[in-house]
Design goal:
Layout: E1 7-12, E2 21-27, E3 30-36, H1 48-52, E4 67-69, E5 90-92, H2 95-113, E6 118-121, H3 128-142, E7 147-148, H4 156-165, E8 183-187, H5 191-194, H6 196-207, E9 211-215, E10 228-230, H7 237-250, H8 256-262, E11 263-264, H9 266-273, H10 278-285, H11 289-301, E12 305-309, H12 311-314, H13 319-332, E13 342-345, H14 352-357, E14 364-365, E15 369-370, H15 374-384, H16 396-403, E16 415-419, H17 423-426, H18 430-439, E17 442-447, E18 459-462, E19 471-474, E20 479-483, H19 496-506, H20 516-530, H21 540-546, E21 548-550, E22 576-577, E23 596-601, H22 617-622, E24 627-630, H23 632-637, E25 645-649, E26 654-661, E27 669-673, E28 686-689, E29 696-697, E30 701-707
Parallel strand pairs: 6-7, 6-16, 8-9, 8-12, 9-10, 11-22, 12-13, 16-17, 17-18, 23-27, 24-26
Antiparallel strand pairs: 1-2, 2-3, 4-5, 4-18, 14-15, 19-20, 20-21, 23-30, 25-26, 25-30, 28-29
Helix pairs in contact: 2-19, 3-19, 3-20, 4-13, 7-10, 7-11, 7-13, 10-11, 16-18
The chain binds iron/sulfur cluster (SF4).
């Protein structure tokens, strides 16, 4: 802005995976405004969250002292209590007392019950360095691989399919490559709300003639720019996609040369899709056969076709199968390995790509090296100079089950360290998850606010907000970018990197990271070694200098590779492995008692569980209350007016919420964002898991809707 400020500090937006570069304008130790910077993902653009969602950092509810639960105050998962009234539940403590208790009790549980009694959730909102150190603490200090984060709720199934199919979980092409595409298929994604600046590149491309195909049970804003909109029936992704693949084969549009040279298992795929003609699938997915064929033809023959997808693909019990179909579609048409084509699972959180790369997942060390691969295991034992568990750990939802396991279960989880995540809002079937958290013998939560999860903690450690620390994050485009400290944390709050190291020291680890900002550069350099070739050429100094570097980046003079798989795929035989998929129904279908489908998701103004954005003045002013969206026809049928109150009930819980009319929502369905604690959508959701990615079915469960 033009106003006089004390300093301008360059950083990255802390919200979504687009990774817009920005500048914080600081006056009198307060961020007064934010400017978009000319980063490779945003070229100066910011959405409403990036531009106005910053004053949460100065909110009076910031935690400024370590807190310890008062003796005799029970954890009540059925009534979490008022987060502003935490003084009834917690007392303030010194850092030494809180850390000694936090780490001491975890150590006691580990020594008494063994390493599997502990688990840790890191955060996709933290830096790469925090993610790396957190997983290192769990693996080398707790002694197991029970470490995970919200990628499990996000793209775990996409990543499972991508690792299996193309050998890498990251995107093949960057978002702004849409300008080179002839067609972009946006499926299971609402980019205007969830990746807003990325959506602007799509809209700009459409204006220049790129055909957008929106395929989604909900017709969202991007539909206004679409050449074709396929509002398929929720849960029928595989039917639609197999019908497109069938059409490509049936109409002789296969890129036979590409398939012969670069794919395996084509015959099995071909055999499998025989039963999936557009004509056979039309009544199942609700899209006319001729439309399916027309879109498939255009996809196969355009100069470049690119698929961008979101949680609508991944959050199903058949999420991995959905993604397998996307991989098969680009492969049979040869639409991968060149500009303006390929696969782009739009990453949700600002650092969910980086946190996963850094090894914050239970089956992989940094850079997706499997913990049960003997070579990787031996390498990390030598690198970290300690014994490591070679068994994959439990995932997010499995950890909640293990917390409620009987005492006799040798893998019962008794103690947890949760950094910057809010599973008491983000997990499916919240009543179950909250009971699991409350049942822990010891829960340590590190966060900036008294979150719903922190209300169930024994010790709460006050952490730093994003503008208060220095570190790197990796966006959806594989760009490693640097955020710099613009403010000091309030009161006694501390940088997360400092807290992790203090916890590690008290768990008995001899770490000694040196240098400014809690040794962040030294941690980064260690992580760079652990990731081998992936970010070999991206030194800390280089990110400081260049602001943003894309990986793979093999050497100091490698500019980074925006498009990958040009020559081969990082699979064992260098080819795509095609994996056929069949129709698997949702785990819970509507019936007479619960006749509506619940679809959960996000909205433009509020981020995930709302802990930051609902405390950002402008964003809260735009969307102050929880709303459920329903089709006008359903409202009429139920005798409802927009603004009325409804009760939405599933087999697991119920919420009371204000209804809003949105004719983009399909009939017999209700859409609820999960950001609102007072009407928490995840009280309703189904914890059934995709068997490969272990991701819950957030996008489909059965609910009843009643007025009042
Ligand atoms: Fe931030 Fe994403 Fe908006 Fe960019 S598009 S300003 S990264 S929330």
């Amino acid at each position: 802005g033009a106003q006089a400020v004390d300093r301008k500090v360059d950083s990255v937006c802390p919200f979504c995976g687009v990774g817009c570069l920005l500048t914080y304008n600081v006056k009198d130790e307060v961020i007064v405004s934010v400017d978009g910077r000319d980063g490779p993902a945003n070229h100066g653009r910011l959405c409403v969250k990036g531009r106005f969602g910053f004053d949460y950092a100065h909110h009076p509810q910031r935690l400024t002292k370590p807190l310890i639960r008062k003796p005799g105050v029970p954890k009540n998962p059925d009534a979490l209590g008022d987060p502003t009234n935490w003084r009834e539940m917690f007392r303030e403590a010194s850092w030494d007392e809180a850390l000694d208790l936090a780490a001491g009790k975890l150590k006691f549980l580990r020594d008494t019950h063994g390493p599997k009694a502990l688990a840790g959730f890191g955060s996709a909102k933290g830096s790469n360095e925090e993610a790396y150190l957190f997983q290192k603490l769990v693996r080398t200090g707790f002694g197991s691989n029970n470490v995970d984060h919200c990628t499990r709720l996000c793209h775990a199934s996409s990543v499972a399919a991508l690792l299996e199919g193309v050998g890498s979980g990251a995107v093949s092409n960057q978002v702004n490559d849409v300008e080179h595409a002839g067609l972009i298929l946006v499926i299971g994604s609402n980019p205007t709300a969830n990746h807003p600046v990325a959506a602007t590149w799509m809209k700009n491309a459409a204006r220049r003639g790129t055909k957008i195909v929106l395929a989604d049970p909900r017709v969202t804003d991007i539909g206004k720019y679409a050449w074709r909109t396929l509002q398929f029936r929720a849960d029928t992704d595989v039917a639609l996609l197999n019908a497109m693949i069938h059409t490509v084969i049936d109409e002789g549009l296969v890129d036979a040369d590409f398939v012969a040279r670069r794919a395996s298992n084509f015959e099995a795929l071909k055999e499998n899709v025989k039963g999936y003609s557009a004509e056979a699938m039309a009544p199942i997915c609700g899209i006319p056969a001729e439309t399916i064929r027309e879109v498939a033809r255009e996809f196969a023959t355009s100069k470049g076709s690119m698929i961008l997808w979101g949680m609508g693909i991944s959050q199903h019990v058949h999420g991995t199968d959905n993604a397998r179909c996307l991989i098969a579609l680009v492969t049979v048409t040869g639409q991968i390995g060149k500009p303006g084509s390929g696969l782009h699972p739009l990453r949700g959180q600002n650092n969910v790509q980086g946190a996963s790369d850094a090894g914050l997942i239970p089956m992989m060390y940094p850079n997706y090296q499997r913990v049960d691969n003997a070579k990787a295991h031996d390498w990390f034992e030598a690198f970290w100079n300690t014994r490591l568990d070679s068994q994959p750990g439990y995932t997010v939802v499995e950890i909640m089950h293990k917390a409620l396991a009987p005492d006799s279960d040798p893998h019962k989880i008794r103690g947890m360290y949760i950094m910057g995540e809010n599973p008491a809002m983000s997990d499916p079937d919240l009543n179950h998850a909250r009971h699991a958290l409350a049942s822990l013998e010891h829960l340590v939560v590190q966060d900036i606010f008294m979150t719903e999860t922190a209300l169930l903690a024994d010790v709460v450690l006050p952490a730093s907000a994003w503008p208060e620390k220095t570190g790197t994050v990796t966006n959806t485009d594989r760009m490693v970018q640097m955020g710099r400290r613009a403010l000091n944390p309030p009161g006694d709050a501390r940088p997360d990197l400092w807290i992790i190291q203090e916890m590690a020291r008290r768990m008995g680890l001899a770490w000694n990271y040196q240098g400014p900002e809690c040794g962040v550069a030294e941690v980064y350099e260690e992580m760079r070694q652990a990731m081998h070739e992936a970010i070999e050429g991206i030194t800390w100094e280089r990110i400081e200098r260049e602001q943003s570097v894309t990986y793979p980046c093999l050497s100091a003079d490698d500019p980074g590779q925006p498009t990958v798989f040009v020559d081969d795929f990082p699979t064992q035989d260098g080819r795509v492995k095609l994996v056929p998929a069949d129709l698997i129904p949702a785990n819970e279908r509507p019936d007479a008692d619960y006749p509506f489908v619940l679809i959960t998701g996000r909205q433009l103004e509020h981020w995930h569980t709302g802990s930051m954005t609902r405390r950002a003045t402008v964003l809260d002013a735009i969307e102050p209350i929880a709303t459920a969206s329903m089709n006008g026809a359903d409202l009429q049928r139920l005798g409802l007016q927009p603004g009325d109150t409804i009760t939405v009930k599933s087999r697991r819980g119920e919420v009371v919420i204000t209804v809003r009319r949105d004719d983009g929502t399909p009939t017999n369905a209700v859409f609820i964002p999960f950001a609102y604690y007072e009407a928490a959508a995840n009280l309703l959701t189904n914890p059934a898991l995709d068997p490969f990615g272990k991701i819950p079915e957030f996008k489909y469960c059965a609910v009843a809707v009643t007025p009042g």
